[in-house]
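2 proteins. here.
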Amino acid sequence: MKSQEEIRAEFIELVKGKTIPYVTCFIKDDGSIDIHGDLNLGCTKITLLPDNLRVYGSLFLSESLVEVLPNNLSIAGSLYMPRTKIEEIPEGTKIGNSLHAFESHLKKLPNDLIIRGCANFEGCPLDQIPTGLCVHGYLDILGTRVTRLSNDLVVKQSLFLSACDIENVVFQDECGEHKRTIFAAYVNGSVNIAAGCFLGDLETFIDLVRHKYGRGEEAGKYIAQGKFCMDELYKKLEEERKKASSGLA
Protein backbone atom coordinates (compact mmCIF):
# COMPACT_ATOMS: atom_id res chain seq x y z
CA MET A 1 0.00 0.00 0.00
CA LYS A 2 1.36 3.41 -0.97
CA SER A 3 2.23 5.93 1.72
CA GLN A 4 0.84 9.47 1.70
CA GLU A 5 4.32 10.70 0.72
CA GLU A 6 4.32 8.46 -2.37
CA ILE A 7 0.75 9.45 -3.28
CA ARG A 8 1.59 13.15 -2.94
CA ALA A 9 4.77 12.81 -4.99
CA GLU A 10 2.99 11.05 -7.87
CA PHE A 11 0.16 13.57 -7.83
CA ILE A 12 2.50 16.59 -7.80
CA GLU A 13 4.57 15.11 -10.62
CA LEU A 14 1.42 14.67 -12.72
CA VAL A 15 0.11 18.17 -12.11
CA LYS A 16 3.43 19.98 -12.45
CA GLY A 17 4.37 17.92 -15.50
CA LYS A 18 1.74 19.81 -17.52
CA THR A 19 -0.18 16.61 -18.20
CA ILE A 20 -3.23 18.49 -16.96
CA PRO A 21 -3.59 21.91 -18.60
CA TYR A 22 -4.88 25.15 -17.07
CA VAL A 23 -4.17 24.27 -13.42
CA THR A 24 -1.66 25.64 -10.94
CA CYS A 25 -0.38 23.62 -7.98
CA PHE A 26 0.62 25.13 -4.64
CA ILE A 27 2.22 22.99 -1.92
CA LYS A 28 1.61 24.34 1.58
CA ASP A 29 3.94 24.14 4.58
CA ASP A 30 1.52 21.78 6.34
CA GLY A 31 1.71 19.32 3.44
CA SER A 32 -1.68 20.17 1.97
CA ILE A 33 -2.02 20.82 -1.76
CA ASP A 34 -4.01 23.62 -3.38
CA ILE A 35 -5.06 23.32 -7.01
CA HIS A 36 -6.25 26.48 -8.77
CA GLY A 37 -8.42 25.71 -11.77
CA ASP A 38 -10.59 22.76 -12.81
CA LEU A 39 -8.84 19.43 -12.18
CA ASN A 40 -9.69 16.74 -14.76
CA LEU A 41 -8.17 13.36 -13.93
CA GLY A 42 -9.98 11.45 -16.67
CA CYS A 43 -7.66 9.32 -18.81
CA THR A 44 -4.71 9.83 -16.42
CA LYS A 45 -2.81 7.11 -14.56
CA ILE A 46 -3.60 8.53 -11.12
CA THR A 47 -5.34 5.96 -8.89
CA LEU A 48 -5.07 7.69 -5.50
CA LEU A 49 -5.46 11.30 -4.42
CA PRO A 50 -3.49 12.84 -1.54
CA ASP A 51 -5.19 13.74 1.71
CA ASN A 52 -5.84 17.44 2.42
CA LEU A 53 -6.37 18.29 -1.24
CA ARG A 54 -8.12 21.58 -2.01
CA VAL A 55 -9.41 22.24 -5.52
CA TYR A 56 -10.33 25.86 -6.28
CA GLY A 57 -12.46 24.83 -9.22
CA SER A 58 -14.28 21.61 -10.10
CA LEU A 59 -12.94 18.05 -9.84
CA PHE A 60 -13.65 15.69 -12.75
CA LEU A 61 -13.15 11.99 -12.02
CA SER A 62 -15.22 10.37 -14.79
CA GLU A 63 -13.10 8.00 -16.89
CA SER A 64 -10.42 8.12 -14.19
CA LEU A 65 -8.86 5.23 -12.25
CA VAL A 66 -9.66 6.79 -8.87
CA GLU A 67 -11.75 4.45 -6.68
CA VAL A 68 -11.35 6.08 -3.24
CA LEU A 69 -11.67 9.75 -2.30
CA PRO A 70 -9.04 11.19 0.06
CA ASN A 71 -9.56 12.53 3.56
CA ASN A 72 -10.30 16.24 4.00
CA LEU A 73 -11.07 16.82 0.33
CA SER A 74 -12.32 20.35 -0.36
CA ILE A 75 -13.77 21.38 -3.73
CA ALA A 76 -14.83 24.97 -4.40
CA GLY A 77 -16.79 23.96 -7.49
CA SER A 78 -18.50 20.70 -8.40
CA LEU A 79 -17.50 17.05 -8.05
CA TYR A 80 -18.13 15.00 -11.18
CA MET A 81 -17.78 11.26 -10.58
CA PRO A 82 -20.37 9.52 -12.81
CA ARG A 83 -19.82 5.85 -13.66
CA THR A 84 -16.81 5.61 -11.33
CA LYS A 85 -16.09 2.83 -8.83
CA ILE A 86 -16.06 5.24 -5.90
CA GLU A 87 -18.28 3.83 -3.14
CA GLU A 88 -18.19 6.49 -0.43
CA ILE A 89 -17.97 10.23 0.14
CA PRO A 90 -15.80 10.50 3.28
CA GLU A 91 -16.71 12.50 6.37
CA GLY A 92 -15.34 16.02 6.15
CA THR A 93 -15.62 16.29 2.36
CA LYS A 94 -16.63 19.81 1.29
CA ILE A 95 -18.34 20.48 -2.04
CA GLY A 96 -18.97 24.09 -3.04
CA ASN A 97 -21.42 23.41 -5.85
CA SER A 98 -22.90 20.20 -7.31
CA LEU A 99 -22.25 16.48 -6.88
CA HIS A 100 -22.83 14.34 -9.96
CA ALA A 101 -22.44 10.64 -9.16
CA PHE A 102 -25.04 9.03 -11.42
CA GLU A 103 -24.47 5.38 -12.37
CA SER A 104 -21.44 5.20 -10.08
CA HIS A 105 -20.79 2.62 -7.35
CA LEU A 106 -21.64 5.15 -4.62
CA LYS A 107 -23.14 3.46 -1.56
CA LYS A 108 -22.64 5.87 1.33
CA LEU A 109 -22.82 9.59 2.06
CA PRO A 110 -21.60 11.27 5.25
CA ASN A 111 -23.95 12.85 7.75
CA ASP A 112 -24.48 16.62 7.58
CA LEU A 113 -23.37 16.85 3.96
CA ILE A 114 -24.20 20.22 2.39
CA ILE A 115 -24.38 20.38 -1.40
CA ARG A 116 -24.78 23.96 -2.55
CA GLY A 117 -25.73 22.95 -6.07
CA CYS A 118 -27.51 19.83 -7.34
CA ALA A 119 -27.06 16.19 -6.31
CA ASN A 120 -27.53 13.46 -8.90
CA PHE A 121 -27.34 9.91 -7.55
CA GLU A 122 -29.50 8.28 -10.23
CA GLY A 123 -28.68 4.60 -10.71
CA CYS A 124 -26.32 4.34 -7.69
CA PRO A 125 -26.52 1.50 -5.11
CA LEU A 126 -27.04 4.20 -2.45
CA ASP A 127 -29.44 2.74 0.14
CA GLN A 128 -29.81 5.49 2.73
CA ILE A 129 -30.26 9.25 2.90
CA PRO A 130 -27.94 10.40 5.69
CA THR A 131 -28.90 12.60 8.60
CA GLY A 132 -28.54 16.29 7.87
CA LEU A 133 -28.34 16.12 4.07
CA CYS A 134 -28.97 19.58 2.60
CA VAL A 135 -29.18 20.11 -1.17
CA HIS A 136 -29.60 23.66 -2.44
CA GLY A 137 -30.50 22.53 -5.96
CA TYR A 138 -32.33 19.39 -7.08
CA LEU A 139 -31.89 15.92 -5.59
CA ASP A 140 -32.19 12.89 -7.89
CA ILE A 141 -32.36 9.44 -6.27
CA LEU A 142 -34.13 7.65 -9.11
CA GLY A 143 -32.98 4.06 -9.49
CA THR A 144 -31.18 3.93 -6.13
CA ARG A 145 -31.84 1.51 -3.26
CA VAL A 146 -33.18 4.22 -0.96
CA THR A 147 -36.48 3.15 0.64
CA ARG A 148 -37.02 5.98 3.10
CA LEU A 149 -36.34 9.71 3.25
CA SER A 150 -34.63 11.08 6.35
CA ASN A 151 -36.77 13.23 8.63
CA ASP A 152 -34.47 16.24 8.34
CA LEU A 153 -33.87 16.18 4.59
CA VAL A 154 -33.60 19.63 2.99
CA VAL A 155 -34.04 20.07 -0.78
CA LYS A 156 -34.48 23.64 -2.00
CA GLN A 157 -35.45 22.95 -5.62
CA SER A 158 -36.74 19.66 -7.07
CA LEU A 159 -36.91 16.10 -5.74
CA PHE A 160 -36.83 13.16 -8.15
CA LEU A 161 -37.45 9.63 -6.89
CA SER A 162 -39.29 6.39 -7.61
CA ALA A 163 -42.31 7.05 -5.40
CA CYS A 164 -43.43 3.42 -5.31
CA ASP A 165 -40.09 2.44 -3.71
CA ILE A 166 -40.14 5.00 -0.86
CA GLU A 167 -42.15 3.95 2.19
CA ASN A 168 -42.68 7.42 3.70
CA VAL A 169 -44.18 9.17 0.67
CA VAL A 170 -47.72 8.99 -0.74
CA PHE A 171 -48.19 9.22 -4.50
CA GLN A 172 -50.79 9.36 -7.25
CA ASP A 173 -50.24 8.31 -10.87
CA GLU A 174 -51.70 9.74 -14.08
CA CYS A 175 -51.86 13.35 -12.86
CA GLY A 176 -52.34 16.38 -15.11
CA GLU A 177 -51.97 16.58 -18.87
CA HIS A 178 -48.53 14.97 -18.71
CA LYS A 179 -49.92 11.97 -16.77
CA ARG A 180 -47.08 12.29 -14.30
CA THR A 181 -46.70 10.77 -10.86
CA ILE A 182 -46.95 13.31 -8.05
CA PHE A 183 -46.19 12.64 -4.40
CA ALA A 184 -46.21 14.14 -0.93
CA ALA A 185 -43.04 13.93 1.15
CA TYR A 186 -41.85 15.29 4.47
CA VAL A 187 -38.98 17.53 3.42
CA ASN A 188 -37.74 20.98 4.45
CA GLY A 189 -39.40 20.55 7.83
CA SER A 190 -42.96 20.06 6.56
CA VAL A 191 -45.14 18.02 4.21
CA ASN A 192 -44.69 19.19 0.63
CA ILE A 193 -45.96 18.25 -2.82
CA ALA A 194 -43.59 17.19 -5.61
CA ALA A 195 -44.85 17.36 -9.19
CA GLY A 196 -42.21 17.28 -11.89
CA CYS A 197 -39.75 20.09 -11.13
CA PHE A 198 -42.09 21.62 -8.54
CA LEU A 199 -41.51 21.04 -4.84
CA GLY A 200 -43.48 23.15 -2.39
CA ASP A 201 -46.53 23.59 -0.19
CA LEU A 202 -50.12 22.79 -1.14
CA GLU A 203 -51.18 26.42 -1.52
CA THR A 204 -48.45 27.14 -4.08
CA PHE A 205 -49.26 23.88 -5.89
CA ILE A 206 -52.93 24.88 -6.16
CA ASP A 207 -52.01 28.33 -7.48
CA LEU A 208 -49.78 26.83 -10.16
CA VAL A 209 -52.40 24.29 -11.22
CA ARG A 210 -55.09 26.97 -11.52
CA HIS A 211 -52.72 29.23 -13.44
CA LYS A 212 -52.14 26.49 -16.01
CA TYR A 213 -55.49 24.66 -16.09
CA GLY A 214 -57.92 27.33 -14.93
CA ARG A 215 -60.73 26.31 -12.58
CA GLY A 216 -62.36 23.56 -14.60
CA GLU A 217 -62.77 19.85 -14.02
CA GLU A 218 -59.21 18.95 -15.00
CA ALA A 219 -57.75 21.44 -12.53
CA GLY A 220 -60.10 20.22 -9.80
CA LYS A 221 -59.04 16.62 -10.34
CA TYR A 222 -55.34 17.51 -10.27
CA ILE A 223 -55.74 19.52 -7.07
CA ALA A 224 -57.75 16.70 -5.48
CA GLN A 225 -54.94 14.26 -6.26
CA GLY A 226 -52.45 16.58 -4.59
CA LYS A 227 -54.66 16.98 -1.52
CA PHE A 228 -55.10 13.21 -1.31
CA CYS A 229 -51.33 12.72 -1.20
CA MET A 230 -50.96 15.35 1.51
CA ASP A 231 -53.82 14.03 3.66
CA GLU A 232 -52.70 10.42 3.42
CA LEU A 233 -49.12 11.29 4.29
CA TYR A 234 -50.25 13.24 7.35
CA LYS A 235 -52.16 10.11 8.44
CA LYS A 236 -49.16 7.88 7.79
CA LEU A 237 -46.81 10.15 9.73
CA GLU A 238 -49.24 10.30 12.66
CA GLU A 239 -49.48 6.51 12.72
CA GLU A 240 -45.68 6.26 12.75
CA ARG A 241 -45.51 8.81 15.57
CA LYS A 242 -48.01 6.84 17.66
CA LYS A 243 -46.14 3.58 17.09
CA ALA A 244 -42.85 5.22 18.06
CA SER A 245 -44.30 6.71 21.25
CA SER A 246 -45.81 3.35 22.24
CA GLY A 247 -42.57 1.49 21.57
CA LEU A 248 -44.06 -0.59 18.74
CA ALA A 249 -41.93 0.89 15.95
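next one coming up
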Amino acid sequence: MPPNTPGYTTQSAGYLRAVTPHATDPLPDGVCRGLLIGTGGNVSIVAENDTDPVLLKNLGSGVIYPIKAKAVRISGTTANDIVALY
Protein backbone atom coordinates (compact mmCIF):
# COMPACT_ATOMS: atom_id res chain seq x y z
CA MET A 1 0.00 0.00 0.00
CA PRO A 2 1.53 3.37 -0.99
CA PRO A 3 2.01 6.09 1.63
CA ASN A 4 -0.78 8.63 2.04
CA THR A 5 1.64 11.56 1.86
CA PRO A 6 3.09 12.28 -1.60
CA GLY A 7 6.89 12.17 -1.58
CA TYR A 8 6.99 10.72 1.94
CA THR A 9 9.91 8.39 1.24
CA THR A 10 11.62 10.56 -1.39
CA GLN A 11 12.08 13.71 0.69
CA SER A 12 15.26 14.21 2.69
CA ALA A 13 15.18 13.35 6.36
CA GLY A 14 14.62 16.32 8.64
CA TYR A 15 16.32 14.69 11.61
CA LEU A 16 17.91 11.41 12.70
CA ARG A 17 17.72 9.30 15.83
CA ALA A 18 19.88 6.37 16.92
CA VAL A 19 17.70 3.28 17.41
CA THR A 20 17.97 0.98 20.40
CA PRO A 21 15.95 -2.18 19.68
CA HIS A 22 13.53 -2.96 22.52
CA ALA A 23 11.24 -5.84 23.48
CA THR A 24 8.05 -3.73 23.74
CA ASP A 25 8.68 0.02 23.32
CA PRO A 26 7.90 1.89 20.09
CA LEU A 27 10.40 4.26 18.49
CA PRO A 28 10.44 7.27 20.83
CA ASP A 29 9.81 9.82 18.05
CA GLY A 30 6.99 7.84 16.41
CA VAL A 31 6.85 6.35 12.93
CA CYS A 32 10.02 6.99 10.92
CA ARG A 33 10.28 7.34 7.16
CA GLY A 34 13.25 4.99 6.84
CA LEU A 35 16.04 3.11 8.58
CA LEU A 36 19.77 3.29 7.95
CA ILE A 37 21.47 0.01 8.81
CA GLY A 38 25.04 0.80 9.86
CA THR A 39 26.25 -2.76 10.37
CA GLY A 40 24.24 -5.32 8.43
CA GLY A 41 22.27 -8.25 9.75
CA ASN A 42 18.68 -9.11 10.63
CA VAL A 43 16.19 -6.53 11.89
CA SER A 44 12.83 -7.24 13.52
CA ILE A 45 10.52 -4.37 12.51
CA VAL A 46 6.94 -3.44 13.33
CA ALA A 47 5.74 -1.46 10.30
CA GLU A 48 3.40 1.52 10.63
CA ASN A 49 0.19 -0.43 10.00
CA ASP A 50 1.24 -3.75 11.58
CA THR A 51 0.85 -5.07 15.11
CA ASP A 52 3.40 -7.89 14.95
CA PRO A 53 7.07 -7.66 13.99
CA VAL A 54 8.48 -9.06 10.77
CA LEU A 55 12.09 -10.28 10.68
CA LEU A 56 13.94 -8.83 7.69
CA LYS A 57 17.02 -10.94 7.06
CA ASN A 58 20.47 -10.08 5.75
CA LEU A 59 20.02 -6.30 5.45
CA GLY A 60 23.13 -4.67 4.04
CA SER A 61 25.54 -2.34 5.84
CA GLY A 62 25.22 1.34 4.98
CA VAL A 63 21.87 0.94 3.23
CA ILE A 64 18.82 3.16 3.80
CA TYR A 65 15.60 1.15 3.72
CA PRO A 66 12.42 3.21 3.05
CA ILE A 67 10.34 1.45 5.69
CA LYS A 68 7.78 3.32 7.77
CA ALA A 69 8.59 1.60 11.06
CA LYS A 70 7.03 2.28 14.45
CA ALA A 71 9.23 -0.15 16.42
CA VAL A 72 12.43 -2.19 16.16
CA ARG A 73 12.32 -5.32 18.29
CA ILE A 74 15.38 -6.74 20.03
CA SER A 75 14.36 -10.38 19.50
CA GLY A 76 15.94 -11.54 16.25
CA THR A 77 17.74 -8.26 15.53
CA THR A 78 21.43 -8.81 14.82
CA ALA A 79 22.17 -5.61 12.87
CA ASN A 80 23.85 -2.73 14.71
CA ASP A 81 24.23 1.03 14.40
CA ILE A 82 20.62 1.49 13.27
CA VAL A 83 19.45 5.06 12.65
CA ALA A 84 15.83 6.17 12.15
CA LEU A 85 15.24 8.88 9.53
CA TYR A 86 12.41 11.34 10.18
